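One such given next:
>
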Amino acid sequence: MSSIAQQHTSSFSVRDLDLKLKKVKLAHPEQSLPSPPSSDSGSSSPKQDSEESYFLRSLEECLAIYEEPSRPRSQSLALLSDEEVIMLANNGNIATYALEKLFGMDQLERAVRIRRAILSRASSTGTLESSSIPYENYDYSRVLGACCENVVGYIPIPLGVAGPLTVDGKQYPIPMATAEGTLVASTSRGCKALNAGGGVSTVLVGDGMTRGPAIDFPSAIQAGKAKAWIDSAEGTRGAPGSIRVDFEVRQAEELEDSDCRKDALRAGTEKALEAMQKRFPEMVVLALSGNYCTDKKPAAINWIEGRGKNVVAEAVIPGHVVKTVLKTTVRDLCNLNVKKNLMGSAMAGSIGGFNAHAANILTAIFLATGQDPAQNVESSMCMTLMEPTGLNGEDLLVSVTMPCIEVGTVGGGTVLAPQQGVLDMLGVRGAHPQQPGQNAQTLARIIASAVLAGELSLLSALAAGHLIKAHMAHNRSQVNTPAASVPVTPGAGFTSRA
């Protein structure tokens, strides 16, 4: 064997061949022929055989196939290999964002695969095409036109289950999608303590969404006249259905879904503004939402008036459970809660942040159940309260007040199969057959109760000095953290290995 042939053999591997074939994977192999052997050589090297085992048609040939008027574009694309489609896209003949529409519903995964290749090769790193980001075996038909655009795959998040937790006399598993170690375990400990006291009781204080349009008037006098008309009986009658027009628009919660609810609220707001426009033609509508609502931003008005589901969750925990399960005392817990959650947050000027880590639990459940994760901003506003109760104050009364839990069980991310599976596990998937809105309300009650468990456990760990030890044991990746950089935290029962 010649030195050149030896060099080619040693520099080529089966993996190289596999990657090469994947790049030129044919939708219909019969439409593209193997490259013929070179006419001026009786043999070929292994590298030549592997790299020329398939050939690509010219841009002109591919364009002619793609633009053939006698068949749909989806059929034309089926006659082209992935590499030929990529060539057309790079030439500007195919819009990368429109691949799913062009390929059709039965070729959605192929559209995602080709988009990955196009974006990867145009990037500075070039890693996406062969990265570990998964894209196969996913139902993209549920995503298309509903959840995401320019899709290149999906991101799996570990899903744990805390509990079960007894809420209003019924047991529920607490689904939590998170990458933070100890969170599920800690919430489970809180569930155990709450269950030992009989579980959690919840109250739905309010249920309604707001939309605050931004409107403009030439003068304050004209704006005042409009406000006076809005407050009058005539203005109130002009509002359609359950919509009340003020300088905000509020709708009673009758739907199961944040997106559907917003659509209905948007339509009602538009109708109300049309009525105002007829009465006050000089009025200019600047935006359907003027941030007075307020959505996905912290705001005192939501903390005070509520938005979405306004839920209070409460429980009484016997003193002996506080000692045996939570490893602390009622007195220490109450003192810590006042100094940390109330005084500390007040000193920081917090809005709705009078809690230890409500956002942790709420966001994990949001991700697991297909909610809008950005709405954790206002949804996780929470006040945690603790006080002694019972004979001689030996038991613990604990509650959380959450006035802005914005959740739904229809539409949005709840159309995705895994998220629907989680909602099924809770028994709140879709619209309630008899009482519209009840499934979403139940989900909000579960979330508030889970937050109560998380608050109870974390504050207990802080009061007992267990938090750091737990995180060092369970929330530190040994794979990504060199052993020498992991600090040793002495605790009860610590003995040196030296």
Remarks:
- Residues 1-10, 26-53, 237-255, 482-498 have pLDDT under 50 and may be disordered.
